[in-house]
Give the backbone structure.
Amino acid sequence: MPNREQEEQHLAEAERHIAEAGERIHRQQQRIGQSENGKAQEKEGEELLATMLESFSLMKHHRDLILDALAGLNRSPTPSPAI
């Protein structure tokens, strides 16, 4: 069973990946808008962007799963100390 510390580490890593992916997506969008290499390269750039956006969505879903796991840990009863 995962513990709080592990889940918080996973959450921090997921947040970092999401932020980095957002920056890469922004740069790719700019490249597509500035492309001077013709329609073929623009189409490749748009296909890459679509893949990046799909991965971004999956990253956010993964983060939501981690948040759900943390919420579940909050709801878990703490064992009573033995007397």
